[in-house]
């Protein structure tokens, strides 16, 4: 009897131990699975965060946010459609658009960190002129594009020029990549530098910088006119006069003429045939002004640009021939064949005259402003130049003194 009781007790004990062992094993299994899921979740979250997909699925309401650059992977995650594809091609992560920090102007400009010129040109060319119809009654703007080595020594004069006209202009500055200084946050030039590359006088990098400026300005659909300026340029009239002159112009302003001299036709290279002939060859001022259609044509060109890059080298200066020749070939009827930036080439040499402090007077500026006649929208006009160069930094003080007369207002 006792033996039977011991046997029953042993069986009961064994059954309990076995049941607890199974429960323990099952609990450990559940704990392991939960831990694994937690690790996978953490890894997935970090992966999405690193690729920017979290912000794509749950966007923040930010007026300066760039267009969505959703990749195929994040698009599937957000929409749970494993056979879906993104509505637009994904944008290269190395050149993702990012909003401008500290932007103070009320515009929709897309500021970015794009360093790949081909991607930048492609992106800008997609913003076609007909897209501006969606702007409704919004006022068109003029893009002022400054090509400079570093700071703008005549910036205080330009500050007075732009003052009170916010919303009618955009500013873009191409400097040496090593130049990192910024003007005060209250300046119209604050945070207006675009991603830039080194520029060397006399070679194709000068044209590369011009195309880079145009492409950046084209990203803002409100920009309708595009004027290229240097750090040595000054405005000859007040903003209202300049704005109305450009916005109402029926053609672009690109110096383009047939120069029979060695410094003109003599620079032509027969290796450009058959695409560019001697009859097509033109020379003109580097400082141009174009409308939106021509700006897109210039940055989209991949037929003529390689020829100038390869066969126009000193003593052929590509910045004096590429744009004038290109426009003469593709759209001569849309160009006035004159520049609106006055330069004194009366002295022989590779560079124009540079004005210094003692040269500045209202008489000099009036001579530049009113000393010529030209055609504007089919009619004769005495206003032919809106800007002038080359003014040394020492001219700032006398220029500021005559600003009330120059711009027609009292300080």
UniProtKB/TrEMBL annotation:
InterPro entries hit by this protein: BC10-like, Glyco_trans_14
Subcellular location: Membrane
Keyword terms, alphabetized: Glycoprotein, Glycosyltransferase, Membrane, Transferase, Transmembrane, Transmembrane helix
Pfam families: Branch (PF02485)
Single GO molecular function: glycosyltransferase activity
Keyword GTP-binding applies: no
GO cellular component, one term: membrane
Membrane topology: Single-pass type II membrane protein
UniProt KW Membrane keyword: yes
Membrane-spanning ranges: 21-49
Protein name: Core-2/I-branching beta-1,6-N-acetylglucosaminyltransferase family protein
């Amino acid at each position: 009897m006792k033996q039977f009781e011991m046997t029953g007790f042993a069986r009961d004990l064994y059954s309990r131990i076995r049941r607890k062992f199974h429960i323990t094993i099952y609990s450990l299994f559940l704990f392991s699975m939960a831990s694994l899921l937690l690790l996978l979740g953490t890894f997935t979250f970090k992966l999405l965060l690193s690729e920017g997909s979290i912000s794509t699925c749950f966007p923040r309401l930010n007026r300066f946010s760039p267009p969505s650059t959703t990749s195929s992977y994040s698009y599937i995650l957000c929409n749970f459609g494993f056979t879906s594809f993104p509505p637009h091609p994904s944008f290269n992560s190395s050149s993702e658009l990012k909003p401008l920090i500290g932007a103070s102007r009320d515009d929709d400009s897309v500021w970015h960190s794009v360093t790949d010129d081909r991607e930048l040109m492609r992106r800008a060319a997609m913003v076609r002129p007909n897209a501006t119809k969606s702007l409704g009654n919004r006022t068109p703007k003029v893009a002022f594009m400054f090509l400079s080595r570093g700071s703008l020594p005549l910036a205080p004069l330009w500050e007075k020029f732009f003052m009170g006209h916010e919303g009618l202009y955009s500013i873009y500055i191409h400097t040496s990549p090593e130049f990192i200084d910024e003007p005060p946050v209250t300046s119209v030039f604050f945070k207006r530098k675009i991603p830039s590359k080194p520029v060397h006088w006399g070679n194709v990098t000068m044209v590369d910088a011009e195309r880079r400026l145009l492409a950046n300005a084209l990203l803002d659909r409100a920009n309708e006119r595009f004027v290229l300026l240097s750090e040595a340029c000054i405005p000859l009239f007040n903003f209202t006069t300049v704005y109305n002159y450009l916005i109402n112009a029926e053609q672009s302003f690109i110096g383009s003429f047939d120069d029979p001299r060695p410094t003109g036709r003599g620079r032509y290279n027969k290796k450009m045939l058959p695409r560019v002939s001697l009859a097509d060859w033109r020379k003109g001022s580097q400082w141009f002004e174009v409308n939106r259609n021509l700006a897109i044509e210039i940055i989209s060109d991949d037929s003529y640009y390689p020829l100038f890059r390869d066969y126009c080298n000193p003593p052929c200066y590509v910045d004096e021939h590429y744009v004038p020749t290109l426009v003469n070939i593709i759209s001569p009827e849309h160009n006035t064949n004159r520049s609106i930036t006055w330069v004194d080439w009366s002295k022989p040499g590779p560079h124009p005259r540079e004005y210094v402090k003692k040269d500045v007077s209202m008489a000099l500026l009036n001579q530049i402003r009113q000393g010529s006649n030209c055609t504007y929208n089919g009619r004769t006009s005495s206003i032919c130049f809106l800007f002038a160069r080359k003014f040394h930094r020492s001219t700032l003080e006398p220029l500021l003194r005559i600003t009330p007369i120059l711009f027609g207002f009292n300080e």
